[in-house]
Amino acid sequence: MEHGTDKMGTSPGQLHRLCRRRTPDVTFSFDGVAMHAQEGDSLLCAITTLASHLRVHEFDGRPRAGFCGMGVCQDCWVWIEGGHRVRACTTQVREGLRVTTRGPLLPGMGAETSA
Amino acid sequence: MSHMDGPGIVIVGAGPAGIGAADVLVRAGLRPVLIDEGRRPGGQGYRKSDPTLGLSLGYARAANYKRIHAVFTALETQIDYRPETLVWSVDGRAAYLAERGAVVDAGLSYDRLILATGATDKIAPVPGWTLTGVYTLGGAQVILKDQGCSIGRKVVFYGSSPLLYLAAAQYIEAGAGKVTILDTTPFARKAAASLKIARAPSVLCNGVALLAGLKARGVTIVSGVSGLRIDGEDGRVAGVSFQAGRRPMRLDCDAVAIGHGLRAETQLAELAGAELAYDATFDQWLPRTDADGRAADGLYLAGDGARIGGAAAAELAGRVAAMACLADLGRSIDKAELIRLRTRRDAYHASQEGLAQAFAWPRHAFADLPDETVLCRCENVTAGAVRAVARSLEGVSDINRVKALTRCGMGRCQARMCGLAAVEVAAAARQEAAEALTYYRPQPPVKPIFIPEPALSEV
Ligand SMILES: Cc1cc2nc3c(=O)[nH]c(=O)nc-3n(C[C@H](O)[C@H](O)[C@H](O)COP(=O)(O)OP(=O)(O)OC[C@H]3O[C@@H](n4cnc5c(N)ncnc54)[C@H](O)[C@@H]3O)c2cc1C
Ligand code: FES
């Protein structure tokens, strides 16, 4: 998997920014790779403007990058530091946030537990 | 709870319907609670684009949009407005909330409940719809309005819905790259439905202007598209193949937005006691209500969540439902005004029936969906698996049995994405009509609740 780190445009990202926010830049990390976004960006936007996907599906291992963008399909789950699962499309990026595609492995469980 | 004095009225949904209802109640001297999961008021179509983006899109200059937001602004201090609050269940006389993801222990009790929960995209899955770069039509709009992004540089808008054209126009307006519209309904059906659509003249006029605008910008529009499949490379969208009439075609693209109109958000209504019935106009199960939105004792429904009607109808329906609620509380209401609101609402509803003809649900296409196509994107269940089980069930025409045996619709989204399609696929396999099946039953929490830190450490 490849996560681009450039700010605008020339990345392997799926989403493309059509305008810049009038907000400060923030730095966060996705699977250990430092990335730049803007305050107010959802994690879906922050990550998939630079990367092609958010996670891999538990069953078929194929990439997923969100689908509905509005908290309905639950296709965009990622993990943030502290072992929390969040919806990328309804969670805002924060300075220094560490985001991962996979959660912590709990004893006797898979990487993700269902709701 | 903070109803101050007077009866406790909770409204769920701060779209046009919920705002209209709140306005009527405030004018009657009440202070309703208005709850919405979203960060800003306006609901789905009338969502404000994020102010930090400085985007200026035409929809936000429309008179009706401005008016609804003005009504809300005037109300804001006179209601108990709770944004970023999910109602994850309702039972009897209480609503159960999660505020910014954190579950509130005590239920919020109410005397009357007005549900204005709206609708989201109605999806007909196609081969390849789980590739990255495929989004719902509504998702493509939200990503634009809230994030200032396009879903790709060469975007195909596929399905059949007025929103297909609206979303495409918004993409062009915002300066997104190449846009193509692939509509599954033949053009002749649109012409045939235009008289009905004209029951609300503004709806027809807006539609004609929209189409003319798209044509003037050189947007390719193909009608009567069938058999679409999304082709991928490394898990990402690379193009689409389809038939235009009988002509096979292929287009390169890096993103696809798909939608076949709207699917009412009915889970809370059903949990609160509403009965659902199949609606042949909108090809989905909708709650039964009386002419004013009464669905059960103390339960009122309004807007797209009760009947797909668009923003103008939603606001009027919200006002009507709130008046019904006031009348049931023994307050005097202006009967002439009620009749006037109903009449206007019904004209929009009649027009919407025309739109449902002009932008048809591709019912006939489900039988041809290849067996290996994923239907349930949460649980990765294929059309073939659903067919096999549906055929084997004797006597029972209940999609919940198919769900129990295949896991189709059992995942995190609670069948919001695949449910209507799963019913069509199962019904076709059984050679039954979709309406013969019992629809998916909702289960609380109606959406996943993310357990916050303190609760986690207790487990
Ligand atoms: C994605 C999308 C885009 C659209 N775009 C346009 C457009 O550009 N122009 C146009 O004219 N029309 C558009 N429409 C159609 C139009 O917006 C709707 O017809 C109109 O918004 C219906 O109003 P409503 O009040 O019934 O519901 P909505 O506006 O959908 O509002 C319902 C509200 O209820 C909230 N809600 C639902 N369930 C819960 C819950 N359990 N807890 C808390 N809150 C909840 C939702 O967050 C939402 O804000 C769009 C519709 C959709 C779905
Ligand atoms: S993209 Fe659908 S819930 Fe986030």
UniProtKB/TrEMBL annotation, chain A:
SUPFAM superfamilies: 2Fe-2S ferredoxin-like
Keywords: Oxidoreductase
Pfam families: Fer2_4
Listed GO MF terms: iron-sulfur cluster binding; oxidoreductase activity
Coiled-coil segments: none
Domain of life: Bacteria
InterPro entries: 2Fe-2S-bd_N, 2Fe-2S_ferredoxin-like_sf
Protein name as it appears in the record: 2Fe-2S iron-sulfur cluster protein
TrEMBL record, chain B:
Keyword Glycoprotein: no
Domain FAD/NAD(P)-binding: 9-314
UniProt cross-references to InterPro entries, sorted A to Z: BFD-like_2Fe2S-bd_dom_sf, FAD/NAD-bd_sf, FAD/NAD-binding_dom, Metab_Enz_Cyan_OpOx_G3PDH, Opine_Oxase_asu/HCN_bsu
Pfam families documented for this protein: Pyr_redox_2 (PF07992)
Keyword Oxidoreductase tagged: yes
Keyword field: Oxidoreductase
GO molecular function: oxidoreductase activity
PANTHER family in the cross-refs: ANAEROBIC GLYCEROL-3-PHOSPHATE DEHYDROGENASE SUBUNIT B
Protein name: NADPH-dependent 2,4-dienoyl-CoA reductase/sulfur reductase-like enzyme
